[in-house]
UniProtKB/TrEMBL annotation:
Stored CDD domains: SPFH_like_u2
Keyword Transmembrane: yes
Gene3D superfamilies, per database record: Band 7 domain
Record protein name field: SPFH domain-containing protein
Family matches, as SUPFAM superfamilies: Band 7/SPFH domain (SSF117892)
Places the protein is found: Membrane
Keywords from the UniProt entry: Membrane, Transmembrane, Transmembrane helix
Length: 285
């Protein structure tokens, strides 16, 4: 596997001045009808001097090879001159966004879901990006999709009934992002790619089970709300009986306590307005 070798070629300004002088010399030779000398000087300038000029913009690099051998990578921005016989390949060092397409996969529990991720990446080692893989852009796309599929297979979408999973795709966003970023860095290190950030951008149940899962979530929410209401109502009934007993307002036997508890629970737990009923008799008649 190729390791990146950073080189610093000489400045191109002095060579550019030399190129201008050779061009001027060739013109003088042509004016003085020294066509052979002028042609040689012009050929040297055009084919041996001018092709060696190299301009590197900020956050760009140039990978140089000479007759199939890797020479090095120029990462410093500026104007340089290199061997004109070298083959040059420009690579961007800027951060790139990969907005992954929505994938239909099964989570850990076998539920069909739709998932997509956004990956921020950049080229870190140019030699690996050029020589270790055929097309590093395509390599990033395919490996990112594979990592997202693997992530969906090892975690459930949500907590299942009677089971509390430590990490889920829905609730464990930070942990899932860290795991995805780590796996992508391992997969893309072969191509010299550094993953800066990876996050889930889309997560939903597949349409064929979305309505059933929505009903399940609604039922779970209703049960949780009812449970909270019942716990609060029981506490209020207990407090009411205790206050009545402490202050001696009324003496209640077990049957009357049961009736009072029943009435209070109906009032506190019911989801409709209660219609009061005036009892003109007794509880026993």
């Amino acid at each position: 596997m190729y390791q990146e070798k950073i080189i610093s070629p000489p400045s191109g300004y002095l060579t550019f001045v030399l190129s201008l002088l050779l061009l001027a010399g060739s013109i003088i030779c042509f004016v003085n009808e020294l066509f052979l000398t002028g042609g040689i000087i012009l050929a040297v300038d055009l084919f041996l001097i001018f092709p060696g000029f190299l301009i590197i913009n900020p956050n760009q690099s140039m990978v140089l090879t000479l007759f199939g051998k890797y020479i090095g990578t120029v990462k410093a921005d500026g104007f340089f001159w290199v061997n004109p016989l070298t083959t040059k390949r420009r690579l961007s060092l800027k951060a790139n966004n990969l907005n992954g397409q929505q994938l239909k996969v099964n989570d850990k529990l076998g539920n069909p879901i739709e998932i997509a991720a956004v990956v921020v990446w950049k080229v870190n080692e140019t030699a690996k990006a050029v020589f270790s893989v055929e097309n590093y852009m395509q390599y990033v796309n395919i490996q990112s999709e594979a990592a997202v599929r693997h992530l969906a297979n090892i975690f459930p979408y949500d907590h299942s009934e009677g089971e509390e999973t430590s990490i889920t795709l829905k609730d464990g966003a930070e942990q899932v992002s860290e795991i995805l970023e780590k796996e992508l860095n391992e997969r893309l290190s072969r191509a010299g790619i550094d993953v800066l950030e990876a996050r889930i951008s889309h997560l939903a149940y597949a349409p064929k089970i979305a309505s059933a899962m929505l009903q399940r979530q609604q039922a779970t929410a209703v049960i949780a709300a009812r449970k909270l209401i019942v716990e609060g109502a029981v506490g209020m009934v207990e407090m009411a009986l205790e206050k009545l007993s402490q202050k001696g307002i009324v003496e209640l036997d077990e049957e009357r306590k049961a009736a009072m508890v029943s009435n209070l629970l109906v009032v506190l737990c019911g989801d409709r307005h209660v219609q009061p009923v005036v009892n003109t008799g007794t509880l026993y008649n």
